[in-house]
Amino acid sequence: MALVGGGAIPRPGEISLAHNGVLFLDEMLEFDRRVLEVLRQPLEEGRVTIARAARTAVFPARFVLVAAMNPCPCGFLGDERRPCRCTPAQIAKYRGRLSGPLRDRIDLIVNVPAVPVHAIADAEPGESTAAVRRRVAAARDAQQRRYDGCGTRTNADLRVAAVGAVCAPDAAGRTLLRRAIERFGLSARGYDRVLRVARTVADLSGSDGVCAEHVAEALQYRLVE
User: 88-123: per-residue pLDDT in tens?
Assistant: First the structure.
């Protein structure tokens, strides 16, 4: 299989070739669901295991997954200019290609609505790439100082046992997170990932602690429909 690799003599696939880099899946839901499900192990463990009759091979696969998908099969759901032609059943079947367990392993989900051409042509310049880069570099430096000597480099690499101590929010943040768990039924994995993202949002803002606003932003990325 192209993503995980294989063959009589096991060879790495695209997942392992993206190790320490970015794996981009365009039109993610056009992939067969069985293909997508193979992402679950590497996203959780950072490795791929290929078992054959004569041998078992383990390849490293710690990567950043970036994927794009349409909101529905025709692509116009929510578009103010063109009507969606899909039935509710077609939309549900299409979105069902992304299973709950795989979605639970995706930290950030962002809806990107269609942008009118005039908005692109007449828009004011946004934040420069250089400014964003400086902010990200500062956040990475803060994480490296925090985890110096611990065998961890980033919040994503943090051991599960240490998440509660390192990423613990303030009282208002804990209250907000507890309400989200009760209302939306976050899984244990989802809870852990919300804390990691909230810690990262705090790092990007230059904050030493995790506040309610950081938790709110992290929840926004996870609970979006």
Answer: 999 999 999 999 999 999 999 999 888 777 777 777
Same domain for 9 and 58?
Answer: yes
Q: How far is 112 from 117, CA to CA, in rounded Å?
A: 15
Q: What distances in angstroms separate CA 96 from CA 34, 36, 111, 122, 216, one per listed residue? A: 12, 12, 17, 38, 27
pTM, two decimal places: 0.86
Task: Give the residue from 31, 34, 32, 59 showing the smallest Cα distance to 45.
Answer: 59
The verdict on residue 115 lying in a domain is: no
Q: What range does the domain containing 150 cover? A: 129-223
* Domains: count for the chain: 2
CATH number of the structural domain spanning residue 156: 1.10.8
Q: Are residues 81 and 12 part of one domain? A: yes
Q: Which of 223, 221, 204 is nearest to 110 (CA)?
A: 221
Tens-place pLDDT, residues 143-199 = 999 999 888 889 998 888 899 899 999 999 999 999 999 998 888 999 999 999 999
- Maximum C-alpha span of the chain: 62
Cross-strand bridge partners of residue 49: 58
Tell me the C-alpha distance between 186 and 109, whole Å: 15
Q: At what angle do helices 212-223 and 188-204 cross, to 10 degrees?
A: 130
Q: Which of 21, 18, 17, 15 is nearest to 3 (CA)?
A: 15
Write a three-state SS string for 58-95.
Answer: EEECCCEEEECCCCCCCCCCCCCCCCCCCCHHHHHHHH
